[in-house]
Amino acid sequence: MAMLDARAREVPDRIAYTCLRDGEVESGTLTFGALRERARAVAARLSSLGMRGDHAILLYPQGTDFLVTFFGCLYAGVVTIPASIPGRKKGIEALKRIAADSGAKWILSTRAAIEEVAEAISSDRVLGGLSFLDPAQGGSAAAGWVPSGLDPRGLALVQYTSGSTGLPRGVAVTHANLVENHRQMQASFDHDQTTVIVSWLPMFHDMGLGALLMTVWSGAHCVLMSPGAFIQSPRRWLAAISRYRGTTSLAPDFAYDLCARRIGRAERAGLDLSPWRAAVNGSEPVRASTIERFVQAFAPCGFQRMAFQPGYGLAEATLFVASGHPSEPPVVRHFSIDALARGQAEPMTAALPGGRALVSCGRAWNGTSVIIVGPGTRAECRPGALGEIWVRGESVTAGYWADEGCEETFQAKTADGRGPFLRTGDLGFIEDGHLYVTGRIKDLVLIHGRAHAPQDVEECASASHRAVAAHASAAFSVETDQGDRLVIVQELVRSAIRALDTAEVILAIRKAVFEELGLRPGAVALLMPLTLLRTSSGKIRRRACRQAFLEGSLPTLCVWFESNAASSAAEAEPDAIAEARRANSSLTVRGAEG
User: Domain check: are 496 and 585 in the same one?
Assistant: First the structure.
């Protein structure tokens, strides 16, 4: 909070945040001075209620109310739990799990923000037991309120993970973690008081929250819009960058791809993206094809390839782990797919078949250490060998909230006793000092004893036919008594549904995956548009897709299963595949010989 105090003292009238209604019209601004004054008023109210040390869930739409309450909680020593406002029954269940897991006593929001779900919250046994408070209404003013000192090692917030490989877990983030992580980001992104950040990322997400806090840390100006405004019209994001001369913006890979695909030549006219110095891509995977497609589409608008800044991070390390620098172009190298399946990174010429383009995520900054460790050996790998990514540094958090069994993840030591390290669960390697991330260990597709990256399969499937949606596929393996089988679930594009030839599409997917990777799918499911299971940040939930496929609960339009012409389908299919066929028996199923 010392940084906000300093900004408010030095430049009280400088605009810190500008909010855009529907991503276009200014709906409010907040100066550093006003933010401090309103946040301290909230802190005074919370302190008068004796809330110091309590855990409070923040339920706010994108806007200044969240900012004021979040910083007010930091001043008052209230532990914040940023969360999304639930929109459906599933959202209520997710919020209920967070409330039960985090030990929250309060819900902080406005009546208007949660009006549509207020009854569902109040009638729930868990959520209804929490006290509701709109901290901006009534109570103590900031005048005369004196904040108590904050312990740097004290808990600042509980940040819930996106849940791409399981249920979301609450990461215990301290004030010291936040300070160190923002020091690293400022050095990597080269931020200062001339920086203009444009963000549509959800405020409750670690990357979205990081953009908000970086504004205060570096004295920047942040322009905000809602995720919905961006999804409805991706041009709004780039138009805001053009209008406010944005220098930094953070987004997952799919956002850049969406812009390149949906913003036509006529809509690009008038966009000036030349001030954009740090186009941070912080998702898994960062695709080389997305970089090239975006550059080709928006170079006429002044966008420079040098601006792309791929990075790597995770909530367990507060947010940021590694990245390049605005002075460096993105590094893309090709590696043998066959060698990667064997756990080795063998560089190859880009023009040769059988290669996979991987994008460097840069390097760690300011004392953070990243090593690659052999799975099951705890021995550090030599350069170019694949292994689990381990991270050590001051921004690595102590663990998950109220989880006493997480030492294996957060306190890992190498075979020679070095540590403690955070085991990320991500697979990657280091080549020429650059960190390359190849995927999640839990997501690896195991076929005939060899590990294949699901991203390779998904990229083949998503590019196989004009009727399938780009980057909207999930690949996973199913263990059976007859060996591991590959399953692919693939979204379709809406415009192709009416005249869809399912047999043609499935054949195209199978052919592409076999010709590119030498893999034969055991099943292929075609999904309705926008139904692939994803996290709030757009990551594919492959394990959830696998479970839903086996249960028959995916919104599939058509499912194809491999069968053997020499025997009946029931006799030929491995148990898990046969179970899935039975679970999907009410759906359109097309069988074919292997």
Answer: yes
Domain that holds residue 461: 444-593
Q: In the beta sheet, which residues pair with residue 382?
A: none
Same domain, 494 and 580: yes
Counted domains in the chain? 2
Report which DSSP code applies to 158: E
**CA 196 – CA 462 distance, rounded (Å):** 35
Taken in order 131, 132, 136, 139, is the CA torsion positive or negative? negative
Residue 518 belongs to a domain = yes
Question: Is 569 found in the same domain as 546?
Answer: yes
Q: Is the pLDDT of residue 82 over 80?
A: yes
Q: Does some domain include residue 224?
A: no
30's tokens: 């907040």
239's tokens: 């138009």
- Looking at 421, 441, 461, the residue that finishes a domain is 441
- Over the Cα atoms of the chain, what is R_g? 25
Give the model confidence (pLDDT) of 394-423 as tens digits.
999 999 998 877 888 999 999 999 999 999
Task: Select from 414, 441, 468 the last residue of a domain.
Answer: 441
Query: Under 8 Å CB-to-CB from 263, ≥6 apart: which residues?
Result: 234, 235, 238, 297
Same domain, 386 and 456: no
**Does 572 have pLDDT greater than 50?**
no
What's the rounded Cα separation, in Å, for the pair 314 and 423? Answer: 11
pLDDT confidence of residue 313 = 94
Assigned domain for 583 exists: yes
CA atoms within 13 A on the CB side of 240: 28
Secondary structure E strands in 383-433: 387-392, 422-431
Residue in the block written with tokens 């995916």: 554
d(CA 587, CA 467): 20
Confidence (pTM): 0.86
Distances (CA, A) of 322 to 9, 364, 420: 33, 4, 18
